[in-house]
Amino acid sequence: MTQERFLKRKIIINDLTDLQPDYEPGTLVLTDSQAVVDECTSKHIPVAAYEDEGAQPIHCSQVLIDVDEIEDDDFENIYRRCAGIPWDIAYTNRCFIREFGMDDLDDLFELYSEPHMTDYMEPLFEYEEEKQYQENYIEYIYKLYGFGMWLIFDRFTGKLIGRAGLEVRETCDRENQAEMGFAIASSRWKQGLAYEVCSKIMELARDEYGLTSLIARCDPENLASRHLLEKLGFVIVGYETDGDCRYFREIL
Question: How many distinct structural domains can be found in the chain?
Fold first, then answer.
């Protein structure tokens, strides 16, 4: 799999009369006008606001500071967020990590239907409930934190082979801490994929998201996950109220 670029062009529109009724896909409108933001939002045109120093604050889902300093990759992600396109997160030798998108829902159910996938973790909700859950997750977790539980794809076939990621949960008891979770398709167990992916996620947690420690939980009987966490440098520090082992690792 190669990274696809969706953003084709950026245009500055600061006068509502200059705004066209629609634009070709891949267009991001930049503006310092609340009226333009409101009109773009109502017409589902991807838009980001920029604010000059001392100007009236603009209400927009994407507000930019120091526009001239923003890198192309960041503009790509801004456009994707506006257009509802999942972010690419990272590559490993064999895997591609990206956000969940609603088009992935059926593949997610297929993943969870593999034998033994839910032996040590909660199954998905019923289809419509899971659909609503994932829509809310995109809106309130990805957009709020910039990270969350991601999808893992085989880099060469494009097939969904797992989930892994970082979440700020009630189990986190330190600042700049998140919980790491992972699940690899049972058909791909014992290939070192979980170690490969989690090692990359730990690197991202430190270098991209400024986290300083991670926790992880697993069922005491899930020996494979316990061995993996120990291999990743986690140490067991106790047990959660539900009986899960609690593991901890600093990533300074």
Answer: 2
Is residue 4, in this structure, part of any structural domain at all?
no
CA gap 232, 247 in Å, rounded: 11
What backbone torsions phi and psi does residue 87 show, to the nearest 5 degrees?
-80, 140
Question: Phi and psi dihedrals of 149, rounded to 5?
Answer: -80, 130
Q: Is the pLDDT of residue 186 over 90?
A: yes
Those residues with Cβ within 8 angstroms of residue 150's Cβ, 6 or more apart along the chain or in another chain: 89, 97, 98, 99, 100, 163, 164, 165
d(CA 232, CA 201): 11
Residue 3 lies in a domain: no
Domain that holds residue 36: 9-83
How many beta carbons lie within 10 A of that of residue 64, not counting itself? Answer: 19
pTM metric for this prediction: 0.92
* Three-class DSSP labels, the chain: CCCCCCCCEEEECCCHHHCCCCCCCCEEEEECCHHHHHHHHHCCCCEEEECCCCCCCCCCCCEECCHHHCCHHHHHHHHHHHHCCCCEEEECCCEEEECCCHHHHHHHHHHHCCCCCCCCCCCCCCHHHHHHHHHHHHHHHHHHHCCCEEEEEECCCCCEEEEEEEECCCCCCCCCEEEEEEEECHHHCCCCHHHHHHHHHHHHHHHCCCCCEEEEEECCCCHHHHHHHHHCCCEEEEECCCCCEEEEEECC
Tens of pLDDT, residue by residue over 35-86, are: 999 999 999 999 999 987 767 889 999 999 888 889 999 999 999 999 999 9
